[in-house]
């Protein structure tokens, strides 16, 4: 399995866009259309936000993760953020997500940041058990409970 920048694999942009759209956009309050998600992922970079990584094996995309400057408007003092971590169901349990997160931490460290943040509405136990530090629980206009975590990038 290889973790690489989506910007190096433009042939995977539509597939990644569809995964993220189905998992994170469709059931949210967002009015974003699939075409807008494709446009977003078409502009990701390898050295400035937004950054998107993909897990690849034998030409197949197994999962993805992004790094945003901010993923929670009410907490703009925290940056950067791990966002949209997704592994295709048939590849779960193989360490794909862990490898994507590890590479994300490496990229953030290379960019000169000492911490990486994330928000979750339903996976707090996973991140606690993976070594992330709980910071706080907040709410915004869409969610009543958002847990915020951070990890050191040293």
From TrEMBL:
This protein is called GNAT family N-acetyltransferase
Which residues are in the N-acetyltransferase domain?
Answer: 3-154
Q: Which organism is it from?
A: Aquibacillus koreensis
A Gene Ontology cellular component where this protein is annotated is:
cytoplasm
Q: Which CDD domains match?
A: NAT_SF (cd04301)
Annotated InterPro entries? Acyl_CoA_acyltransferase, GNAT_dom, NAA80
Pfam families from the UniProt entry: Acetyltransf_1
GO terms, molecular function: acetyl-CoA binding; N-acetyltransferase activity
